[in-house]
Amino acid sequence: MDRLVHMAYDERMQSASKLTPKGTATRERIVEAAADLILARGVGGTSLDDIRAGTATSKSQLFHYFPGGKSELIGAIAAFQAGRVLEAQRPYLDTLDTWEAWQGWRDAVVAHYGSQPHWGCPIGTLASELTGNDPTRALEVAAHLDHWRGHLRAGLARMRDAGLLRPEADPERLALSTFASLQGGLLLTQTMCSLEPLTAALDGALAALRSWAADPSGPAA
Amino acid sequence: MDRLVHMAYDERMQSASKLTPKGTATRERIVEAAADLILARGVGGTSLDDIRAGTATSKSQLFHYFPGGKSELIGAIAAFQAGRVLEAQRPYLDTLDTWEAWQGWRDAVVAHYGSQPHWGCPIGTLASELTGNDPTRALEVAAHLDHWRGHLRAGLARMRDAGLLRPEADPERLALSTFASLQGGLLLTQTMCSLEPLTAALDGALAALRSWAADPSGPAA
DNA sequence: GAGCGAATGGACCGGTCAGTCCAGAAGCTA
DNA sequence: TAGCTTCTGGACTGACCGGTCCATTCGCTC
Questions:
Q1: What is the spatial distance, in angstroms and rounded to an integer, between the CA atom of A49 and the C1' atom of C12?
Q2: Which pTM value belongs to this model?
Q3: Residue A66 in contact with residue A73, Cβ under 8 Å?
Q4: Angle at A28 (CA atoms; ends A22, A29), nearest 5 degrees
Q5: Each residue's pLDDT tens digit, B191-202
Q6: DSSP state of A213
Q7: Please, are residues A180 and B197 in contact by the beta-carbon 8 Å criterion?
Q8: What Å distances lie between residue B146 and A188, A194, B181, B183, CA to CA?
Q9: How much is the pLDDT for A4?
């Protein structure tokens, strides 16, 4: 997987080495609870003591499971959030071959973020905050975004090949545009504390996609 | 102005009270230089000592001109960046009444961010990072975003009233969608260190707008 | 139960950070 | 020059934070 490629060597060794069931459970508990804390208060606004308190663990455990310290913990959280957010878009994300699938995807995304306890995108926020502070880790987070966007691109490419999109449509560029709408919608969702920016952004993105439909009369609603 | 409404009482007094020409020059020098530092390294990644070094000032000057400390300085930087970014979109931003004006606006935005020394949106990044750490200041930054978006909405409303957009078009929602594309494009621009996400996002946003054009054949390219 | 490694608790350390304070220089007015 | 305010320098502080260390407990295997 993409994720492993971008992990440092010693981190891979750490993950793969001896951890008892109890250990892995504790590690997961830390990641999940810390993910919520950081989503709510940001990386810079969350101290290891906050995480320690929020997960009912001790300082030594944090460094036991994440020898790389806070940075490695952030990486694990990013991977966890990436997995969660992709999972919420199944099965549509893998089968974006029809206009109906895109609409289903849109609804799944809205439903997922509407049910979250906090506003905003866990990955996009991380990527933005890490750029400039922890460039290495930022690249890793950016890889998650690329992976996510790749699913959109793949769907668009299949639609073009199937004749649903005009031949001159550029899946790469359209995926970029659609993904930007999604991320921007989530950013505004965060600052405005409302789901409407997201729905408006996604509807706009789908309208932009439909403008590339092969059928001149446009796809069914 | 919006900005003043959202400033704390004592800050308004501070800004309005006695500052010699030399003082105002120093204050501006601090804001401009600090703005670049924070844009490059984020709020959390920039200490007052960094700013002190980068502006050739002393700690006491920072607190002399910004009694509210770092938070107040951030507010001043946000206002400064908001002014700068709006200025770069003139005169199009005030006259988004035709499809040509929208295209000109798109080009102006791309040109501005392409000429910046750093990637990403100074305001959007700030808003995202402040949410959860400094909610009061985050609201102030969000007000700048709202003001910016208001220009788009006003233009769309005028276009609908002029019959260029279909009557059922919702300027508020379309502005939200367009602005989300812009912000998302800038976010991806930051993480990917490329201008292409921004151009793709804006082209997509304009395509979405054109899908609401009154003329069924669509506006001229 | 002996032995061993994993898991846990928590005191501790060095560094950094935002913010304070005071002394003094610069500049303006009379 | 006198006297005031503004402006500037930099030492200092108290809190916090990431990270280290060691002692103890747990849980598994012989």
A1: 15
A2: 0.91
A3: yes
A4: 90
A5: 999 999 999 999
A6: B
A7: yes
A8: 10, 14, 15, 12
A9: 35
